[in-house]
Amino acid sequence: MQTELLRQDQSRSPQERPRPQRSRTDCPILLSPRLVLRTPHEDDIDALAHLANNANIATMVSRMPHPYTVADAADFVRRTKTGTIGKCVYAITKADNGAFLGCCGIEPHPDGRTAELGYWLGEPYWNEGYATEAAQALTDMAFRTRDIDQIDARCRVMNVASRRVIQKCGFQYQGSGMVESQALGGMMAVEWYRLDRKTWMSLRSWGGRR
Ligand SMILES: CC(C)(COP(=O)(O)OP(=O)(O)OC[C@H]1O[C@@H](n2cnc3c(N)ncnc32)[C@H](O)[C@@H]1OP(=O)(O)O)[C@@H](O)C(=O)NCCC(=O)NCCS
Fold it and tell me: What would the mean pLDDT of 88-100 be, rounded to a whole number?
């Protein structure tokens, strides 16, 4: 059977041969005490469209349209699969019942030494520690599996909750700047934070980051 499959595969041109899914190889499924972080898929579209259609979320992130439609959600899922929206995008889901809570991702910078962390959660799930748990799982994965020196995170200056998440993960303030916001249709003032590998290793060995 295996030999037959191998023979069929080798009869195809290299372009036709099935390729391993990028997300499976580069972005392993991540487990934390209460969460499963996995590739977004079609079953998430309704929940994604419902939760993401919220100005309180869209105006805090750089690349989310508002209003957010089912078509936007379907397009997002499609583009995460093809890798055009980001190299490592995850659906944040509850480990106990599989509920879709939001999204997070980690994106390499062109410098090859830095990655950028981003996340959002549906408003019904705020203030239960989920974003911190997801961000910690992502930073751990990134430092363990990638040859990077640091992870950056940016939040709007008025975004108290996100700043707190970033600080609970051990990131340190670097400066401020402006980034474009799709939902605002203009620039927004942000704070820039960074977690370097050495600090991450110290925090890991201290056994907790809260
Ligand atoms: C930012 C966001 C992801 C946080 O998610 P979350 O799961 O609620 O975060 P956590 O529960 O892990 O931590 C939130 C922290 O902020 C604190 N917080 C929340 N709102 C606050 C407020 N108005 N004032 C002070 N502290 C606040 C919480 O008390 C908690 O801190 P604590 O654990 O010390 O009590 C969520 O609010 C969100 O999706 N917002 C919109 C999108 C967004 O801002 N994304 C980030 C872009 S940089």
Answer: 97
